[in-house]
Amino acid sequence: MVKITERSYEITGRPAVICDFSPPRSGVPDQLPPALPEADFLLVACNPGRAVRANSAMLAAYLRRPAGPETAFALVTRDLNRLAIQSQLLGAQLLGLENVVVAQGDPFSPAERERVKTVADYTPTELIAAIAAMNRGRDFRDRQLAAPTDFCIGATADLGRGLRREARLAHRKAAAGAQFLITQPIFDPQAADRFRAAAAEVAGQSLTLPIFYGLQMLEAGGLAFGAVPPETLAQLAAGRSGVEIAVELYAGFREAGIHNIYLVPPIRRGGGRDYAAAQEFLAAIRKM
Questions:
Q1: Model's pTM, two decimal places?
Q2: Phi–psi pair at 42, nearest 5 degrees
Q3: Residue 61 scores a pLDDT above 80
Q4: What confidence score (pLDDT) does residue 80 get?
Q5: Residue 214 and residue 264: Cα distance in Å, rounded?
Q6: For the chain, what percentages of helix, strand and coil (3-state, to nearest 5) are there?
Q7: Cα Rg of the chain (Å, integer)
Q8: Strands 71-76 and 260-264
Q9: pLDDT computed for residue 65 by the predictor
Q10: Are 63 and 97 in contact (CB under 8 A)?
Q11: Share of residues in the chain with pLDDT > 90 (%)
Q12: Is residue 33 over pLDDT 90?
């Protein structure tokens, strides 16, 4: 298995793409969407939409079967206590997984909390530090593991929550052991420069870990993370292809010096993804 940091632009000199991959709401293999051969990694989400879905680590291992794509799995702090999380991580290691992305997970609504409880035994930064400790052979009780883990640890950032706030968090996550960063989608490539400047300002030094900036593909009537520029919405409403818009945005990313991207395929009402559009986009940018 290849670690995400080993495929980053900083190491290879070529653009790298992590593609978001949503688990199905079943355990039936023929209901899986097709893999995306042009993506460097598939990042299997953890219960997107706060719905019952196939386990992210198990699915990441299933997708990696002989001749499958390289994968990563998301792990959220919302749902499991420390014992369960660290046991799941050892299971992921047995399955041959090395790439994990730590996130908090969207909060449950008041109605959902009548049926399910938030655990949040770790904050994301605490979980990153705990995985780093497992990589050194220590569990959450500071007891020696029979063998250390070897996870490549990813963290998340949402630039829409404030650049200085997210920059401070990113530095804390890097200090805790994060080795790469994934951001929520941005629609202004210059936001990357502003984030890098904020990171240097708040800590007196630049972030040195690879950052995969989010690029969301859109379709008319679909869902989006964050605020979409009005002109982009107008283009979609006028019938312009979401793939074409995404390729144009990617060109802007490249001009702004962004070479690692986190691709979010179009999200339809109900949570379905248009992976065919994502594959069309990936095929187009590999020719650029």
A1: 0.96
A2: -105, 125
A3: yes
A4: 96
A5: 7
A6: 40, 15, 45
A7: 18
A8: unpaired
A9: 85
A10: no
A11: 87
A12: no
Q: Which one-letter DSSP state was computed for residue 108? A: P
Q: Both tokens of residue 110?
A: 């008041």
What is the number of structural domains in the chain?
1
State the amino acid at position 31 in one-letter form: Q
Pairwise CA distance, residues 194 & 188, whole Å: 10
Residue-level pLDDT at 258: 97
Alpha helices (H) along the chain: 4-7, 9-12, 56-63, 82-94, 124-135, 163-176, 190-203, 230-237, 242-255, 275-285
Instruction: Specify the CATH number for the domain of residue 203.
Output: 3.20.20.220
Question: Which amino acid belongs to residue 230?
Answer: P
Decide if pLDDT at 226 tops 90. no
CB atoms within 10 A of CB 257: 11
> How many angstroms from the chain centroid is the CA of residue 102?
8
| β-bridge pairing 211-216 and 152-157 | unpaired
- pLDDT tens readout for residues 263-282: 999 998 877 899 999 999 99
How many whole angstroms separate alpha carbon 84 and alpha carbon 64?
Answer: 23
Q: How many CB atoms lie within 10 A of CB 45?
A: 21
Q: Nearest 5°: CA angle at 9, between 156 and 35?
A: 70
Backbone phi, psi, residue 19, to 5°: -110, 130
Rounded to whole angstroms, the Cα distance separating 118 from 126 reads 17
Domain carrying residue 280: 4-285
pLDDT at position 187 over 80: yes
Angle at which helices 275-285 and 242-255 pack, to 10 degrees? 40
